[in-house]
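Tokens in:
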């Protein structure tokens, strides 16, 4: 979706260390939260995402997307909602989760946070073929946690035409910060779908498609044609319309492709990127409205995070991702501690007259 691409672009701008992200998983857990949003919070999510799963026919589209992805050989995706066992969910939200994500809520005792962490980690491990066994760190949940919305994606595919390991050689890779590092560069001479494009800012870049076995999945590689142009210029131009244009205009040509063999482990916190995209209300206890989830207590999102592992080599690609939106309720009475300088005044309420006004700097 465009929302996923915009989220990735925003993330790329805000992170000094460019992390890997899988937009599908992050968008899925945000969409699960959207199903439970109301009022201003729902309007903000609808505006940022560009669509609403609450709109007619959209839940069916989400369900079919998840089904189509899971039907691909080597691809598994699953969603889950871990709910505090004493919190009653709105029936409409239960139905919406089933309709859009084909998942029923799992009851968890968040008064035992470490036990809840273990339950969630076990679910993630089971749905990523064991690639992400420790998704949530110890201490990442508290007894104020009420709901954890989850998505897991596992992907394993062989290249349609594998790279010959004998052709892999050490070469230098020119990093964005100007440094140079040695990498194992894979090389394949073959017919590829290839094209050259121009961003709205006039930056020339190339796109080459490397298909996986079966031809329904492929990797698209984009890079600026001029070596001194930052990749951010291309990322800023990403949209579903632009990628559709790539697909339409790529042409089959013979090329020698050299690309590094690589492995990435990445952990991403989406909060700062989402704040910049106008979703501050979602994270604010005073303004968040998730009354479609429950009317028992006020809920807001504390974090939206993702862990990813990906390996690309001569044979193909292995990737796993787990995403979560953690929601909590602050039931405990919030302390206001006047343990630093403060001002006090005594006022006659009927007249509004203030007759004592004082700073307390050192009691």
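Residues out:
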């Amino acid at each position: 979706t465009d929302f996923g691409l915009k989220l990735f672009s925003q993330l790329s701008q805000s992170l000094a260390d460019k992390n890997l992200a899988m937009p599908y998983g992050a968008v899925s857990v945000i969409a699960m939260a959207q199903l439970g949003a109301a009022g201003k919070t729902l309007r903000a999510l609808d505006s940022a995402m560009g669509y609403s799963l609450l709109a007619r026919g959209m839940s069916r589209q989400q369900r079919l997307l998840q089904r189509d992805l899971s039907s691909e050989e080597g691809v598994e995706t699953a969603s889950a909602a871990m709910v505090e066992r004493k919190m009653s969910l709105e029936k409409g939200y239960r139905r919406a989760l089933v309709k859009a994500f084909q998942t029923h809520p799992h009851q968890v005792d968040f008064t035992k946070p470490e036990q809840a962490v273990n339950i969630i980690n076990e679910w993630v491990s089971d749905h990523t073929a064991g690639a992400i066994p420790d998704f949530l760190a110890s201490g990442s949940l508290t007894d104020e946690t009420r709901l954890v919305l989850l998505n897991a994606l596992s992907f394993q595919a062989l290249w349609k035409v594998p790279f010959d390991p004998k052709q892999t050689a050490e070469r230098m890779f020119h990093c964005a910060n100007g440094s140079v590092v040695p990498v194992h560069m894979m090389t394949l001479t073959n017919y590829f779908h290839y094209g050259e494009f121009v961003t709205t800012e006039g930056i020339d870049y190339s796109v080459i498609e490397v298909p996986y076995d079966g031809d329904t999945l492929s990797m698209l590689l984009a890079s600026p044609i001029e070596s001194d142009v930052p990749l951010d210029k291309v990322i800023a131009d990403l949209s579903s319309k632009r990628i559709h244009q790539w697909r339409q205009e790529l042409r089959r040509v013979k090329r020698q492709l050299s690309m590094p063999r690589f492995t990435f482990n990445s952990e991403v916190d989406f909060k700062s990127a989402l704040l910049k995209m106008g979703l501050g209300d979602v994270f604010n206890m005073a303004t968040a409205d998730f009354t479609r989830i429950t009317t028992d207590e006020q809920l807001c999102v504390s974090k939206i995070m993702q862990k990813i592992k990906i390996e690309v080599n001569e044979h193909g690609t292995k990737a796993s991702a787990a995403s979560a939106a953690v929601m909590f309720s602050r039931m405990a009475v919030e302390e206001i501690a006047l343990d630093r300088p403060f001002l006090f005044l005594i006022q006659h309420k009927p007249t509004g007259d203030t007759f004592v006004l004082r700073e307390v700097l050192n009691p």
